[in-house]
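User: Can you predict the 3D structure for this chain?
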Amino acid sequence: MSDTTPKSPAEFVETMLRSSIEGDRLVAEYIDNAPLRQAETHVAVNGFIAAMAMDALRRHAPGSADALAELLDHVFTLGDLTGPSYRIAKAMDYDPDAWIAQIEQRLAQSRQPGGAR
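Assistant: Here is the predicted structure, written as structure tokens:
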């Protein structure tokens, strides 16, 4: 497990807000690189939404927030969120396989010489 893993709902909120701010600042830095700008925009928006959701949970259901923070302590390392997110998307009748295919296609295009900028 990572030493930077949030151990409490308050730490999670702080981490997500920091991630959101960092992502937003990187959007400006990568303004001429469409794939990187798009990725950083997603980081900024997702971090902000996650922070708001966890803060609301912390205020209205502190026991649930603590349980979620404990669960996140076990999965919040690089790459470990794909599995739980994939299962949630499947349970909600989304098609995460199509999303993954689109992501991989964008990555392949951006790696080609003269790829999308």
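The helical segments are 9-29, 34-60, 62-75, 82-91, 96-111. The two ends are 35 Å apart (CA to CA).
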